[in-house]
Amino acid sequence: MGVSRVKDVDRKEERKEMKKSLKETLLKKEKERARTIIRLVDADLDGEKPLRRALMGIKGISFAMSKAICAAGNFDPNRKLKELSEEELKKLEEIIRNPVKYGIPPFLVNRRKDPETGEDLHLVGEEVKIRMNFDIQKMIELKTYRGWRHKLGLPVRGQKTRSHFRKGRTVGVVKKKEGK
């Protein structure tokens, strides 16, 4: 009987050690997983992707803009996003917010010669959507042609409406009844 009790105690200790090592590995995996998702300019980016591809996950940054950002900050575009240090991430965010200041040409920014300020701005994240809605609302208030088209839900940029943009109205050939 004494031998079985010793075995039970040994098994319990082994189980405790196994649980402890399992918890440690789970914590390590959780830290790694937390590092794979990186918050940058109000967007969650995949840290496993190369820098140039990960930046395209931010609304308002295109392929050309992401390449220009990498060049302006002397970042390797093929380096994974999770490999960047905190200082490099801060520098990257600064470049994204003020690209013209870091030598990125104005033709790459998405709001050149802003009507209100006259500056070249680059909007990212929710700023893009908010500014676009304000611009559309301003066109509607000024009753411009484009404003009317937006208001009526019609195509704004000169597209034809004969075959598209019908919005529920049935247009086409009507069959005659066969009894007549």
Share of helical residues? 40-55%
CATH fold-level label of one domain: Helicase, Ruva Protein, domain 3
Average pLDDT number: 84
Number of helices: 6
Annotation, overall tally of beta strands: 2
Structural class: mainly alpha
Radius of gyration: 29 Å
Question: Could you walk me through the main structural features you see in this protein, from its secondary elements to its overall organization?
Answer:
This protein has 180 residues and is mostly helical. It has a domain at 19-108: Helicase, Ruva Protein, domain 3. 48% of the residues lie in helices and 4% in strands. The protein has helices spanning 2-36, 51-55, 63-72, 86-97, 126-142, 145-152, and strands at 37-40, 43-46. Strand 1 (37-40) and strand 2 form a beta hairpin. The longest helix has 35 residues, at 2-36. The chain is flat, with a radius of gyration of 29 Å. The termini are far apart.
List keywords for this structure.
Helicase, Ruva Protein, domain 3, 48% helix, two-stranded antiparallel sheet, 180 residues, flat, mainly alpha
What order do the helices and strands come in, and which of them pair?
Layout: H1 2-36, E1 37-40, E2 43-46, H2 51-55, H3 63-72, H4 86-97, H5 126-142, H6 145-152
Helix pairs in contact: 5-6
Quick gist of this model?
Helices cover 48% and strands 4% of the residues.
